[in-house]
Amino acid sequence: MTQLTRRRFMQTTAAGAAASALGGRAFAQDTAQIRHFWWGNPERDRRTFAVIDIFNEAHPNIQVTGETVGFGDYFPKLTTQIAGGNMPDVIQHGYGAIFEYIERGAILPLDEYVGNTIDLSGIDDSAIQAGTFDGQLYALSIGANAHMAMYNKAMYEAAGITAGDGFDPYGWTYDDVKRIAVAVSEATPDGVYGTDDNTANWQNFSDFVVQRGGQLYNEDDTIGATVEMLVEYWNIWKDIRDAGGAPPGPASAGLVSADMADWGIVTGQTATTYQWSNQLVGVQALLQDPVGAAMFPNTADMVPGSYVQPSQFICLTRDTSNAEAATTYMNAFVNMTEMTNVLGLERGIPANTEARNALIPTLTEAEAASVEYFDGIRGKTAELPPPFPSGANEVEETYKRVATGVLLEQSSMEDAAQDFIDQANFVLSRN
């Protein structure tokens, strides 16, 4: 395999539109057994198992089985499967860490299947480019995604907070977060707080680095954050916590890697949580109160930190037992309207134009809010960065571990910040 260069990643694939390949090539009479593995939540799992049933009914020569775990368990299990040589045929992956798996040879290029079992004719060019690395297509985008602050509208309204009345969902600052969080905490029962504490939220911190004029990773694949950035960011959340807008540090430390069912907005512990936009549908499915959408908070100078990226990819693994059958399923997952209608927007805005148009009349209130959110953030986001280097997943886990120590006041912020930078650069240097 050609040595990959992370900075050469988004070249337009030479593969053009081809005739629809939902039928694929002829398979042997024996039924092909395909495994699909994804990280999920109750709503995602329900939808994905439903589309697997649709596919299996339409393709009697292929039988797909689904495997799902929570996000916190997904990559450790995938790592074990890679080591054992028994990865499922098809896996879900994210933009931030996919390069590492390509570089390790765990994910196969798809170019030889384009025009045969994979049809790209209806897929947005930007989605194709996002899955293209060193001129080869490795991944099909399941949908567009962006960072999103989700808030309980009923709790906000109880505190007199409504969008457009002292609250700009597309332009609020950390000062606004503190003000609103304290107001919500005061208007709700004891033990309920206005916002999650994002001290250990890697996604929010990654935005903050860009808002402060940096990049998460430097050109030489060293960490781009500085001690000063880390300390400033952690102090922002300490100030919100000390003002009563967020839970005490130990309570937040216990939720750093929680599954969706345990998020503060779902359990009622907090009114605001900070996740990915595609998760709005899943959160709303677990709540009776309506959920609103806002951007991650901004610094006072309003430099954008969030960006739009593929929500997740669907990828072909090195251990597939039948690449033609697997890519036929992958193609249907992004192109077959009967399946994309069931998937909806739970994984993000579809990359297929026909799929998007078919969804419009069927959107739930939460899905419509997700589409409205993407309209609202247009022109207010940062440029999509190159894929993160090998070791990025471990760097993220290192950050969460060190920041959890900050929540527990196990060391000074300055010492913790230097510790994270040293550990992150060590991880990156050996990958």
UniProtKB/TrEMBL annotation:
Q: Name one GO cellular component term.
A: periplasmic space
Q: Does the keyword Signal apply?
A: yes
Cleaved signal peptide residues: 1-28
- Give the protein name, as stated in the record: Extracellular solute-binding protein
Its lineage opens with: Bacteria, Pseudomonadati, Pseudomonadota, Alphaproteobacteria, Rhodobacterales
Annotated SUPFAM superfamilies: Periplasmic binding protein-like II (SSF53850)
Family classification: Belongs to the bacterial solute-binding protein 1 family.
Instruction: Say which domain of life the source belongs to.
Output: Bacteria
**Places the protein is found:** Periplasm
Show the Gene3D superfamilies listed in the entry: Periplasmic binding protein-like II
